[in-house]
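Subject: Protein record for review, amino acid sequence with backbone structure tokens
Category: Structural biology, sequence-to-fold work with a learned token vocabulary.
Format: Residues in single-letter code; tokens as whole numbers, each standing for a residue.
Body of memo: The sequence and its backbone structure tokens, given next.
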Amino acid sequence: MEFRTISRDGVTIGEVISDEILFKTVPEGTDFVGNLYYAGFDNVVLDERNVFPDFFDLKTGLAGEVLQKFTNFRIRVAIFGDFTKYGGKSWKDFMLESNQWRQISFAPSREAAIDALLK
């Protein structure tokens, strides 16, 4: 895993670069968020391909627990990718609601995710 720094409009964004799933459990997710915090990132862009598929099933609780860690550490995160394969109504409603608050965003592309963090 690597971090790339993106600077735009006076905002610094950390982009996580990896060929692997970054976390599969809540403790691994907590460590991941902690690493971002200690790396000094307040805004993070993350590709959904690096997120364990169970994250997108709200019944597992993985999304809720890990996203709460982002909130606790005051790190804004924008996850980008193709979310159509996670077709449940609950997931779609969760994404829509999250996007309204700007702490956690879901976007169709990397550029859209970066734009979400610039707002």
Notes: The domain at 2-118 is CATH 3.30.750 (Transcription Regulator spoIIAA). The longest strand covers residues 2-8. Residues 4 and 15 are 5 Å apart (CA to CA). The chain has one domain: 2-118.
